[in-house]
Design goal:
By secondary structure, the protein is an all-alpha fold. The chain is built from 17 helices and no strands.
Length: 292
């Protein structure tokens, strides 16, 4: 809803007072402003939305110390607070409004160990939502074997994307594609929100459109192998990805050997690895050979 702060009609002024209290996260002031609005305009069209937002704002003042309470608070923010807030003040303003709320929750969660069943209550992910990247990074790095945990790997990938560190995010993108493809797809689908570099989003769109056009699998697990073939300049970064025991990851490892080995010519080792790639991933092999 777009309110005009320069109009002087009584209803607009009273609504603006409610909005101002909401912006200030002052539940008491919002209640007072809302009561004044309803006293003069009991049938105000935004009454229900204002009441709902007041209720959610009041709930935020309650402590959420345990991991389960924090997880429940996060779910309420996502499902009950964020949608009406976006409707009331706009998507960007709502995002800025909510970030400090996540920061408070992150600090409440600090010191609690990571558990996958309550991943959304871990401080690292909450600091990321609060756009406090340094604290998010430190919290994720504190998780033992974080690189093998889908949620932690996704958080670190998003941190690297936001910080625009290609030497870090390209191998993480590859690992996330192999370990938790749905999380990578969700991350790149909201690329504007996570501030992913334009190059990453452009290459991902190319991958999706080409896979759809030529009938190849469009599963994101093949994105790293596709990158190695179509954008070989990324090889120095992609080759640092940690290995994974899956067909797409093994195919990518074969491609690395091929792309490096063929610089010395068509050696028996290159011929052998081409055969291995053809047996392991025929569609990827066909794309690779089409570029030779």
């Amino acid at each position: 809803m777009q309110l005009d702060l320069f109009l002087h009609s009584a209803d607009v002024q009273l609504r603006n007072a409610v909005i101002a209290a909401l912006y200030a996260r002052d539940a008491e002031a919002m209640r007072i402003a809302l009561d004044r609005l309803l006293a003069e305009f009991p049938n105000d069209l935004h009454h229900a939305d204002f009441e709902h937002l007041y209720s959610e704002l009041s709930a935020l003042s309650q402590e959420a110390g345990s991991a389960s309470a924090i997880a429940q608070r996060v779910e309420c923010i996502e499902t009950r607070l964020q949608p009406p807030l976006q409707k009331m003040i706009g998507t960007d303003a709502a995002q800025h409004w909510i970030e400090p709320v996540y920061g408070q929750l992150a600090r409440a969660a600090s010191g609690q160990a990571f558990t996958r069943s309550l991943a959304q209550a871990y401080a690292g992910g909450l600091f990321l939502r609060a756009n406090e990247l340094a604290l998010a990074r430190a919290s994720v790095l504190a998780i033992p074997s974080w690189r093998r945990i889908p949620e932690a790997l996704a958080w670190m990938t998003e941190i690297a994307l936001r910080e625009d560190k290609p030497d870090e995010y390209w191998p993480l993108v590859a690992e996330l594609a192999w370990i938790a493809p749905a999380l990578l797809a969700a991350l790149l689908a909201v690329g504007v929100h996570c501030a992913a570099p334009a190059t990453v989003l452009r290459y991902y769109r190319e991958f999706c459109s080409e896979a759809e056009a030529d009938g190849e699998t469009d599963e994101i697990v093949w994105f790293p192998a596709w990158l190695m073939i179509e954008h070989a300049e990324l090889l120095p970064w992609l080759r640092t990805a940690h290995p994974h025991d899956s067909r797409p990851a093994r195919s990518a490892a074969l491609l690395i050997d091929l792309l490096l080995g063929e610089r010395r010519g068509l050696t028996p080792a290159v011929v052998d690895k081409r055969q291995q790639l053809r047996d392991l991933a025929p569609a990827i092999f066909a794309r690779y050979m089409a570029r030779r």
